[in-house]
Amino acid sequence: MKATVYVTIKENVLDPQGVAVQGGLHSLGFNEVGKVRIGKYLELELDTTDRAEAEARLKVMCEKLLANTVVEDYRFELED
Amino acid sequence: MKATVYVTIKENVLDPQGVAVQGGLHSLGFNEVGKVRIGKYLELELDTTDRAEAEARLKVMCEKLLANTVVEDYRFELED
């Protein structure tokens, strides 16, 4: 089973990396670029066939290691 | 218009961050986790309504700044 996890900075938390990339794009002449937010994108291979269990365990992985839930949100998708 | 950009490490390039996260998950008892690959996930607001032009310019942004095309792949989606 393959899992895709998206970790994003919460809406009301400052994203300095996004601000820096926005500045870089403006310097290159891409003035149409407004807010930029940068997150993480993870692909995990899971050696399991039980979808419900995979979801439950993936939630724990996100809470414990993959995301810092104080300042980040996460969501994931599972494919067989 | 809103753009979502996914930047991933090319399949045949080593991803040390992914290897570290895999090790961390194994240490926490998630032994079902196989290969882990970590990429970037960017959300950009674009002040434009011309979809074709937005796509063309986004491609240039990716090539010039957002992705290192020597070792990374990118893909993007546009929403109105």
UniProtKB/TrEMBL annotation, chains A, B:
InterPro entries: PurS, PurS-like_sf. Keywords: ATP-binding, Cytoplasm, Ligase, Nucleotide-binding, Purine biosynthesis. One of its GO terms (biological process) is 'de novo' IMP biosynthetic process. One of its GO terms (cellular component) is cytoplasm. Its EC number is 6.3.5.3. It catalyses: N(2)-formyl-N(1)-(5-phospho-beta-D-ribosyl)glycinamide + L-glutamine + ATP + H2O = 2-formamido-N(1)-(5-O-phospho-beta-D-ribosyl)acetamidine + L-glutamate + ADP + phosphate + H(+). Pathway: Purine metabolism; IMP biosynthesis via de novo pathway; 5-amino-1-(5-phospho-D-ribosyl)imidazole from N(2)-formyl-N(1)-(5-phospho-D-ribosyl)glycinamide: step 1/2. One of its GO terms (molecular function) is ATP binding. It holds the Pfam family PurS. It is found in: Cytoplasm. Belongs to the PurS family. Part of the FGAM synthase complex composed of 1 PurL, 1 PurQ and 2 PurS subunits. Part of the phosphoribosylformylglycinamidine synthase complex involved in the purines biosynthetic pathway. Catalyzes the ATP-dependent conversion of formylglycinamide ribonucleotide (FGAR) and glutamine to yield formylglycinamidine ribonucleotide (FGAM) and glutamate. The FGAM synthase complex is composed of three subunits. PurQ produces an ammonia molecule by converting glutamine to glutamate. PurL transfers the ammonia molecule to FGAR to form FGAM in an ATP-dependent manner. This is Phosphoribosylformylglycinamidine synthase subunit PurS. It comes from Paenibacillus montaniterrae. The gene is purS.
